[in-house]
Amino acid sequence: MLLKVLAVTLYVTCRQDTGAAAHYILFMRSPDQLLHPTPAGLYCPVGDFYIDPVRAVDRAVITHGHADHARAGHGAVLATPETINIMAARYGEDFTVRRQPTELGEVVSINGVDVSLAPAGHVLGSAQAVVEHRGLRMVCTGDYKRRQDPTCTPFEPVPCHVFISEATFALPVFRHPDDRDEIRKLLHSLTTFPDRAHLVGVYALGKAQRVISLIREAGYHDTIYIHGALKSLCDLYEDHGISLGKLEPATLEKGVAKEEQAKFAGKIVMGPPSAFRDKWARRFPDPITVFCSGWMRIRQRAKQSGVELPIILSDHADWDELTQTVRDVNPQELWVTHGREDALCRWAELDGYKARPLRLVGYDEDS
Ligand SMILES: [Zn+2]
Ligand SMILES: [Zn+2]
After folding, report:
1. 300 CA to middle of ligand 1, Å?
2. Separation of 100 CA from ligand 1 center, angstroms?
3. What pTM value is reported for the model?
4. What is the pLDDT of residues 124-156, one digit of tens each?
5. How far is the CA of 41 from the centre of ligand 2 (A)?
6. Residue 339 and residue 364: Cα distance in Å, rounded?
7. 333: Cβ contacts below 8 Å, ≥ 6 apart
8. How far apart, in whole angstroms, are the C-alpha atoms of residue 288 and residue 291?
9. Which ligand is nearest the CA of 365, by number?
10. Which of 99, 160, 293, 302 is close enough to 310 for a disulfide, judged by CB 3.0 to 4.6 Å?
11. Mean pLDDT over each residue of the chain, to the nearest integer
12. Ligand 1 centre from 64 Cα, in Å?
């Protein structure tokens, strides 16, 4: 037993050159005592709170506003002010009993456990949850990416003992191309097909605003028409200082005159993917369907969903970003959640990290 403790201490001190590392094992037998997976989500028994719970709980720490991470009905919600505003916009002002808006870097004590938020670079307001107790620091990323995104604060690696990473695109086949090149494809198509409306499928939170920003950065300043489902979140981004240029509603009533329809020819019309199955989409002149997602890397998937112009653009880290991030953070243990957990664990073990798939359920693949 003593030998084992000595070995662990030695391993820990070699792996991370801080006194804190060896310190924590004196107080805790395993990181599981600070955070562990439950059917409702990652739970901290010492602080009595959950991170991104998939069920209503008394106290939740929320990493970002996507619906599978941020649900309504909790007793208390700790999140960045932006995430709190996003939740209120989506669920109504009474989405939780108590709000605890917390700025990035601010430390809040929950029943003696220090909780803080660090930027995750995923969508506006997205954060990693940093949980610290008696010298043990665990970081849960929520969803993240490493690429520059004009609509949110970039990801910051936080040194920690246990790093809990998402794994949406954790297969070597997923390498997202340069987003500016992808946006150029869309703009090129507009000039090649000036008579056709370009219907661009985007998720309402994050993807829509990032795609609009990238289009503006590429020098396109014409009106962009948006489906009603995107409006409130575009307004919210504008309220947070992210300028999206001229947006107008993409409404086209049934039976409108040809001339009215014609105004969308050669224009960008954006909507959530669900709207593309509606009659709404068929009212536009000779539409080209475009879809912006990391999954567009799989040609089959694009074809099956009838996408003519797939744009590979994701708000999740690709394989290289995931593996680079693990090396940057250099934790003693890697825990992996939602996505290709086994692939990232296998890579981590080969790279010398102790790794564990968490098998949490209830998180979507693309948000
Ligand atoms: Zn997610
Ligand atoms: Zn997300």
Report:
1. 23
2. 22
3. 0.91
4. 999 999 999 999 999 999 999 999 999 999 999
5. 15
6. 9
7. 31, 161, 162, 163, 353, 354, 355, 356
8. 10
9. 1
10. 302
11. 91
12. 9
